[in-house]
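Standup notes
- DV: blocked on the single-chain target, sequence here:
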Amino acid sequence: MAGHSQFKNIMHRKGRQDAARSKLFSKLSREITVAVKEGGPDPAANPRLRLAIQQARGENMPKDNIDRAINRAAGDDSAIYEEIRYEGYGPGGVAIIVEALTDNRNRTASAVRAVFSRHGGNLGETGSVAFNFERVGEIVYPPEAADAEAVLDAAVTAGADDVVSDDSGHVITCGFEDLGDVSAALQEVLGEPQSVKAVWRPRMTTPIGEDHAATVMKLIAALEDDDDVQHVYANFEVSDAVMEKLTAA
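- DV (later): unblocked, structure below
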């Protein structure tokens, strides 16, 4: 498993995301806003909004917050956000993709560039690292949803491409264009998922040691702390022992 996935799973198990819940809800609201502006306020007729709502529910965002974000976006009092993707390299040659939703392109570009520079990385041109990744759909279920065999059977029937099950849950991947259909089929069998989203999955990973891993994790954390940044993907690979040691510090 790629290092960034290990990092996110360990951080989740430690409950550290709770400290950033308000920031998380703000980012989820921003995605809902963009989805409504793009395809309207009806989830049944707007696949992107439907996925955004599923993601928000998976993160335990209150229904009132979700409804408020939809209503605000459907009116005239919401900001207009632009989707931007940044690409660059971190320490040790780690490829990094940053997805942002911003109402000020200059502000976000400056902030992202500063984070890369401050942590020994380099922000590149669009397309400079994307070849290291593939765009796929990712559906996550908690471990109590079903046992690994039942999840695998449901995923195969739904048309998914891969399933990884461990103590933290079940991660099901499928083609990006199939995400809506696969998630709907899985929901009929397994119930509502913890999250449904499109992600950048590494085609190849970059092995790094403890020194570079510590700096890369700080870089990723700093990027994710930016209000305009929605998602960060990286292709580093480290040993479980090193990852446990760093996240325990």
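- Follow-up: The longest strand covers residues 133-141.
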